[in-house]
UniProtKB/TrEMBL annotation:
It comes from Algoriphagus formosus. The modification N6-(pyridoxal phosphate)lysine is found at K190. GO terms for molecular function: pyridoxal phosphate binding; transaminase activity. SUPFAM superfamilies: PLP-dependent transferases. This is Pyridoxal phosphate-dependent aminotransferase. Keywords: Aminotransferase, Pyridoxal phosphate, Transferase. InterPro entries: DegT/StrS_aminotransferase, PyrdxlP-dep_Trfase, PyrdxlP-dep_Trfase_major, PyrdxlP-dep_Trfase_small. One of its GO terms (biological process) is polysaccharide biosynthetic process. Belongs to the DegT/DnrJ/EryC1 family. The active site is at K190 (proton acceptor). PANTHER family: DTDP-4-AMINO-4,6-DIDEOXYGALACTOSE TRANSAMINASE, TRANSAMINASE.
Amino acid sequence: MSNAIKLSVPTFGGNEEVYTKMAIGSGQLATNGDFIDSFEEKFSNKLASHEIVALNSGTSSLHLSMVLLGIGKGDEVICQTFTFCASANPIIYLGATPVFVDSEPETWNISPELLEDAILDRIANGKKPKAIVIVHLFGMPAKIQEIMSIASRYQIPIIEDAAEAVGSTYRGDYCGTFGDVGIYSFNGNKILSAGGGGALVSSKINLIQRAKYLSTQAREDLPYYQHLEIGFNYRMNNLCASVALAQLEQLDEFVEKRREINANYRKLLEGFVGISFQPEANESKSNFWLTAILIDEEVTGFSNDQVRVALMKNDVETRFLWKPLHLQPVFKEIKYFGGNVAKSFFHKGICLPSSVNLTFEDQERIVDIFKKELAKTF
Ligand SMILES: *Cc1c(COP(=O)(O)O)cnc(C)c1O
């Protein structure tokens, strides 16, 4: 156990214990309380012109975003194929249909060209998409400028799934603040962990107010329970918010640490032909939630699965990149625009341990396994 290295575990080195005790001591554990208010205020201040609503997961935040944009039965929603299922599942919850789009090789996120192809095709078929879900995979900002100009040309709202990109920036602004609505996740292994949690981000105060109303069962402001609409139980609770606030206080530190881990891997694996990293453009600053690499088996002589097994034998946990959604059995009937870009990333890629508490010695041990067990000739 002592030598085990996990893929991504939370670090609770700040005020987590203090705030959690305060939350319990105050008796405020439900979906209203001081920590929810402080967390939202502190996070909103960080995002400048945007506000957040604290919710209970990234998935519920995506679902609520789509409700706010009026997505419903029979609608089509474009979604990046190279992502976790939670980006697309809420489309199905609403009786709408996803349309998947492939990635481009420069950020590994949705290809602007293929996005436009998909929009034009769907419009030609009388099915103008109701929204576009873009994702910043492993924390890496997508080609936001290009995507936004296409979205505005066709007047289609963007839902920015920044679940993995809390603290990442693009041209100096935070990911999550570019779309009509953005979302974050604070689940157990994301860069900020609140046990479970999420947030919805918007610059539109009416959307923020409506998100607060709908996420607390759409209760009218009356002395008894009166409902004019169907709501959701999606609000973050005050106990989770106490952890979330303590984590938020350390966000800048966490981002710098994960970036340092990424830079160390790049240095340690430098000159190892056949291994390449998720590229970062000048205009982007990834939080490097996870360091992701591609292994060209024809060059290295070993596959991503051999890396996984070799590291597992040494108690080191890794994870394959997301299996593209258009290749998931559950989505096999769904329309797809693109080729084999995301698919080849899935076949070649692997995520390396990236926890904030990872030491340089841990990283050396991991890279030594590459050198000793895998590349006998390195
Ligand atoms: C984690 C994640 C989500 C879902 O967040 P939860 O808080 O686990 O519900 C959504 N999209 C992406 C890309 C994620 O990585």
